[in-house]
Amino acid sequence: MQLKEINYGVAFYCDGNIEVNKNLNKYPKLYKDVIKHEMQHLKSKSDMQDLWIDFKDLFKIKKRFMLIGFCLLHPKALIADSPIYLDKDGIKYNLFNIVLMVIFLVLIISTIFILK
Ligand SMILES: [Zn+2]
Which one of 25, 52, 91, 116 is most buried, by most CB atoms within 10 A? Predict the structure, then answer.
């Protein structure tokens, strides 16, 4: 496993390696949590497992707040939160964010129909 520093997004896992935002070094607790999370993805054997890893991570409230703070201080980190994004290797997608977006859309549309 190789750890590579990047200047966008928060962190990514790909081909057995982890790419991590170089600015994350300034926040050791968050850095450790993010690397631990990406290591779980590296051990994952399916998209469903990856979804479960990301779902469980949603409820780590302290980490969520630290990530929001990190993204506010380093706006390029927000690239990773798009369902589909472009990086140096081309177009990539984040399945978890796509599922989350579909759930939100269904909730919004359902709410509109209920209110009518
Ligand atoms: Zn993840």
Answer: 52
Band of pLDDT at residue 80, cut at 50, 70 and 90:
low
Instruction: Note down the domain range covering 84.
Output: 3-115
Q: Which of 20-24, 43-47, 55-59, 89-93 has the lowest mean pLDDT?
A: 89-93
Fill in the DSSP letter of residue 82. Answer: S
Alpha carbon of 2 to ligand 1 centroid (Å):
17
Rounded CA gap, 29 and 58, in Å? 17
Q: How far is CA 102 from CA 37, 61, 95, 96, in A?
A: 23, 22, 11, 10
**Domains in the chain, number:** 1
Output the CA 97–ligand 1 centroid distance in Å. 10
* Residues 26-43: tens digit of each pLDDT: 999 999 999 999 999 999
> What pLDDT score was predicted for residue 62?
96
Record the pTM: 0.76
Characterise 105 by phi-psi region: left (phi > 0), alpha (psi -120 to 50), beta (else): alpha
